[in-house]
Amino acid sequence: MKTITAQKPFEELSEALSGAERIYVVGCGTCATMLHTGGKSEVLDMKEKLEAAGKKVTGWMVIPTACDELSKDALGESIQEIEQADCILVMACAFGVQTVSLYSDKPVYPALNTLFVGKEETPGHFIEVCMQCGNCILARTAGICPLVRCAKSLLNGPCGGSVDGKCEVSPDIPCAWQIIYDRLAALGQLDKLEEIVPIRDWSTSREGGPRTIIISD
C-alpha cells in the first residue's frame, strides 16, 4: 500500500514561496520515490527549477520515510542548512509534510498533492483501494469497496446506468456492483444482497475534525 501523490504545478509553488528567498528541500525515499514525485531525481529537478526562478536552495535531503518520527533525527543532521533557509519545501505526502512541521520552526510548504491510498496493479499504474472511512463494509460486499470502486460511491446496489458491466461515467471503469455481484455469486453468498442494512454511521468518516483513537492496555 502506498500513499499516492502528484506534483503541484510549479506556478502554484512559486506563489506559495513568493515571500521566501532561501529554501531547503526535503524528499521522501518511500512512496514519493516510487511515484517519481519526490525522490532524489525529483528533488534535484526541483532544486534546478527553484534556482532558475532566482531562489537560493540552502540544501536538500531525501528522508527514507518522511512520515516517520526518524525525520526529527534526519532534520537535526542538516540543522545548519535548514537554519539558513526561510522555509522548507517538502516533496512528500501530507503526512510527511505535517511530520516535518512537527520538528522544525520554519514555515513548511507541500510540493505535492496527496491523492489517495492505493496499490500498484501493473508497473506504474496505481489504483485507489481505501478511503479510510472508518466503517468498513467489506464483509458484505465480497471484499470490494463500493465507496472507492463505484464512481458514485453507492452503498445499496448499482445505479442502473451501467452497460455490459461498465460504469456509465466511463467505459474504462468496471461497475463496482457488477464486480461485487459476480464475486458473491461465485462464493455462493448472493443472499447477502437481500439483507436489510442499517443506515450508515458516517461519524467515523473524515468530517468533524481530526479522527482519533485511544488504544487501552
Task: Write up this protein.
This protein has 217 residues and is of the alpha/beta class. The protein has 8 helices and 7 strands. It has a 4-stranded parallel β-sheet with strand order 3-2-4-5, with helices on both faces. A 3-stranded antiparallel β-sheet has the order 1-6-7. The two termini are 28 Å apart.
Measured on Cα atoms, how large is the radius of gyration?
22 Å
The CATH architecture name of the largest domain reads 3-Layer(aba) Sandwich
Question: How far apart, in Å, are the first and last alpha carbons?
Answer: 28 Å
| Strand percent estimate | 15-25%
CATH superfamily of the largest domain: Response regulator
Strand order of the largest sheet: 3-2-4-5
CATH topology of the largest domain: Rossmann fold
* Structural class designation: alpha/beta
Low confidence ranges: none
Report mean pLDDT, rounded to a whole number: 89
Shape: elongated
Kindly state the number of beta strands: 7
Summarize the structure.
The chain is an alpha/beta fold. Helices cover 28% and strands 21% of the residues. It has helices at residues 10-16, 31-34, 40-52, 71-77, 79-83, 94-102, 146-149, 176-187, and strands at residues 2-7, 22-28, 56-63, 87-91, 108-110, 112-122, 125-130.
Question: Secondary-structure map with pairings?
Answer:
Layout (H helix, E strand, L loop, with lengths): L1 E6 L2 H7 L5 E7 L2 H4 L5 H13 L3 E8 L7 H7 L1 H5 L3 E5 L2 H9 L5 E3 L1 E11 L2 E6 L15 H4 L26 H12 L30
Parallel strand pairs: 2-3, 2-4, 4-5
Antiparallel strand pairs: 1-6, 6-7
